[in-house]
Design brief:
Layout (H helix, E strand, L loop, with lengths): L7 E5 L4 E4 L6 E4 L2 E8 L2 E9 L11 H6 L3 E4 L3 E6 L2 E9 L2 E4 L15 H5 L5 H6 L10 H7 L31
Antiparallel strand pairs: 1-4, 2-3, 4-5, 6-7, 7-8, 8-9
InterPro entries: PolX-like_BBD
Protein name: Retrovirus-related Pol polyprotein from transposon TNT 1-94-like beta-barrel domain-containing protein
Pfam family, one: Pol_BBD
Length: 180
């Protein structure tokens, strides 16, 4: 379980689980499940099905899950080494009956998909033209197109221009009306 979304190389927010802490006095909510890669001594340990629990005080790795990966823990008096297939993967210290791992989370670079490039390539062609050409339509709102559609703003002294449809609505209200 990891408390920061930035630790995940992939994260699906489809999973929501209740997590009970060791003292069972409080329940935390896992807001997603994904894969975390841990770097230690130039080795990478991939942890799939890790939970994202934002209110968790520290990151926790299940020993039972490490046994599933056929990892071996060699322990000295106050330190340990985690090996797999004879290769050292992690090392750390034991303090107050807790295992502390010296690790670094790799930097994850994520890109956010831009709107359909065809809309831009075809000089801001409308959805109907893009659909006629058999190209994949985009549901994204083009900022340039929205700004070009604004010709005249009522009350220009009082309001900022809107960027999205229904961002700002001007309505004339009349009432109360008593029908005859």
């Amino acid at each position: 379980m990891f408390h920061s979304e930035s630790a995940f190389t992939s994260l699906s927010k489809d999973t929501t689980l209740a997590v009970t802490t060791g003292d069972s006095s409080s329940t935390l909510i896992a807001e997603g499940m994904g894969t975390v890669n841990i770097l230690s001594d130039n080795q990478t340990l991939k942890l799939p099905n890790s939970l994202c629990v934002p209110k968790l005080g520290c990151n926790i790795v299940s020993l039972l899950k490490t046994f599933d990966k056929k990892l071996i823990i060699n322990q000295d008096k106050d330190s340990f080494i985690l090996t797999a297939k004879g290769k050292e993967i992690l090392q750390g210290k034991t303090e107050k009956n807790l295992i502390k791992v010296d690790y670094h989370l790799p930097t994850v670079h994520k890109t956010i998909a831009k709107e359909s490039p065809w809309h831009e390539r075809l000089r801001r062609a409308g959805r109907s033209i893009i659909k006629l050409m058999g190209l994949p339509p985009s549901d994204d709102l083009c900022k340039v197109c929205n700004l070009n559609k604004i010709h005249w703003l009522p009350f220009k002294d009082h309001f900022e221009p809107a960027d999205l449809p229904l961002d700002c609505v001007h309505v004339d209200l009349v009432g109360p009306i008593s029908p005859p």
